Amino acid sequence: MWFLSLCLLLLVCPCRAAVADNPYLQSLIAQAHTKHLADQPYWRRLLHDRRNLFGYYESEVDDPHFFLDSRGRKNPSAELDATLTAFFEPPVIDSDTQHPQCRFPARYAWLKDQLGFDNRLQEQACPRFEQWRDSMNAASVTVIFASYYMNNPSSMYGHSFLRLNGKGHTASEHLLDYTVNYAADVNTHNGILFAIYGLTGGYRGRFSTMPYYAKVQEYNNLESRDLWEYALTLDPAAVDRMLRHLWELGNATLAYYFLNRNCSYELLPVLEVADPSLHLIDRFWFKAIPTDTLRMILQQPGLVSGVVLRPSHVSKMLAARERLSPEEIKVAEKLVKDSDAQGPKDLAPYAPERKAAILDSAYDLFRYRTGFSRDQPSGVQEQDHRLLVWRNELGPVNVTQRDGPFGDRPDVSSLSPDHGHKTGRIGLSYGFTNHSHFEELSLRTAVHDQDDPPLGYIPGSQLQMFHLRMRYDNDRKTAYVQQFTLVDLRSYSPWDRWVHHPSWEVNTGLNVANDLPKDPENSLYYGLNGGSGFSFHTPLSRDSMIYALARADMGLGATFRDNYRIGGGGSAGLFFDIADFWHVHFDFADLQYALGNPGPATKLTVVQGCRVAHDVEFRATLERQNTYKEVLLSLLFFL
Amino acid sequence: MKRLLAIGLSAALLPSLALATGNHPMAGCGLGYLLLSNKDNEQVTQILGATTNGTFGTQTFGISSGTSGCTKDGAVKLARATEVFAEVNLDSLRKEMAAGQGEYVNTFASLLGATDATRPAMVRLFQTQYTTLFPSSNTTSDEMLNRVAQTLAQHPELLG
Description:
Number of helices of chain B: 8
Low-confidence stretches of chain A: 7-13, 404-409
Helix content of chain B: 40-55%
CATH topology of the largest domain in chain A: Porin
Largest interface: A-B, 82 and 66 residues
Number of domains of chain A: 4
Mean pLDDT of chain B: 72
CATH superfamily of the largest domain in chain A: monomeric porin ompg
Mean pLDDT of chain A: 90
Oligomer: heterodimer
Low-confidence stretches of chain B: 4-52
Largest sheet of chain B: 2 strands, antiparallel
Radius of gyration of chain A: 30 Å
Helix content of chain A: 25-40%
Structural class of chain A: alpha+beta
CATH architecture of the largest domain in chain A: Beta Barrel
Strand order of the largest sheet of chain A: 10-11-12-13-14-15-16-17-18-19-20-21
Shape of chain A: globular
Distance between the termini of chain A: 71 Å
Radius of gyration of chain B: 17 Å
Largest sheet of chain A: 12 strands, antiparallel, barrel
């Protein structure tokens, strides 16, 4: 038995020893040291090395499968030596296992170029990598940005992924292109666990490639999100480097953090490997919001050559409806409900092109209402089939091109999401109340409130995270916290006959109870607030809304008689734009606190915002709560 | 070449023909998750910012993830390309084949072997044969593909 083990040992060990002793390998390692290859920026990029908080280089990839040396994560030189050594390993026997040259094709190509490998290093065939690369068939790369969807303010963060445009694919064959997507492996649909794991790196992220059509179904249809396609000018050599490196990343999973190491951030190091002249990641430390990473890509001179919009199902549905007359809209709605097969009778008075338009819109509305999941009840399937057979019976009919979502606005590129204001905000304000005057400094991490410049965001929606407002009272010479909002969500979606959601809001954080007759530094409390109601368009301006919500509010704090208070009531308001740059918002809220610190809180707010530059707003806010009056003049900077 | 492709398609579909009712070879692909209903309408997931953001398919389509029913290392197996396309996009195809126009039906025609010259005619053929291709309200993608194969077998000129 021991004899057998010794034989086996002798078989394995000399192999390793032989590799390490190889004179050509030794000369390559020596050459690499002389040339300081391990310190080269490109080697660092291949390893995803970045200076951490302590100033040391460390790889952002924490999976041991990404490294050939156990110290590889923090030691680029050891990793380089180990990589060169691994390239000399003997050929693999079974076709599913990969030789190190094949697991790390980007490193192989770069080291070969830097050190000039000759035939003393046996170049291995890499069938799995090459087959995958041939399937990807990439000629160029496009960044795809999935925009927000109505009724979900959190989607204002957006999402981005890459599309590998297939060689020989025409503009109408992009559905077959492959995409590159970095996402977390999620094993729960429990919303709270999802948030906790996502924020603390509890999920592992990985790169996957799937056909674009799968993404279009998921985003355009299932989630009703517009897809904005930004074509990049990466040349074939850059595309080749990207594919090699993506294959390397396939070895590993990375720790996924919603806030900064997320879907959009991880695309940036991949683009930096493709094109070494790009510097994309430097600004992103504690937060990487997809719209910000998109803007970073767009800022690189000459990197983006154009943008194309692929509208969501809802966008197309509403745009097509604009081309129907009011009677035709009613016929379409009737067809959706029709379970007696009266359709052809209702359509009889119309010309074939109008019949087709009505049926197409009816089908749009029908699918929107039933949703895009596959397991529909049989009644729904029957109605689906009926509507399509009626459409089919019309034969070949010329229908107006239904792709543009914005009807008569041909240049949609000026509406693309990158035009929105930046996601961080700093505010410098001066204000006065009945009793004093003060300065205020406000800092907000993300993203948008109802009175910020609306371009690029959902009208009427609000998503604020970590918003701190600090004031200094000039008369009493005290500094205090006016507000620290943890999360503030508001979705006011205007009622539409086809697309209607209730309006709602939820927010939580520290607030000053200005409705109480106390000094602000003595009336800070922790609050949780929610509301539900409705909003409607008004004709005052394009995105103008009037709204009314029932509200409930709970506060915990020593400032209340019983250390807490609970109340309810409602709010109503109106906002509109006097001009493109001038926004006005009136809000009236009336809450009655029944428990803990009984009393009324009536609040009237008037906000006027003027956009003075792309990322600068001047805002005047008048507020009155019970007997408290305040005027606040602010200069807000988005960065 | 295109003829070979059509013959190949029919051959690939024979097993499904043999297994007839209740068979969903696509489910074996692990593509079931792609057909989930939209969970994000739930209020809680909205508030907490949970969106799908590409969580579907990270395992099956992971780069260098190995071989599964329909994929290899993150790419769809060439022999299964048409089946996968038809299954994932069945609803869009059902709508566009009825109307005889659209991006999905045109892409489908290309996958089946149509050239630039023959694609319009193939799409028109699908429209005229719609009720044959989608005979009932719950026609599956496999059934539809079988019928498409049979229909195309009678129109070899469409495959260039």
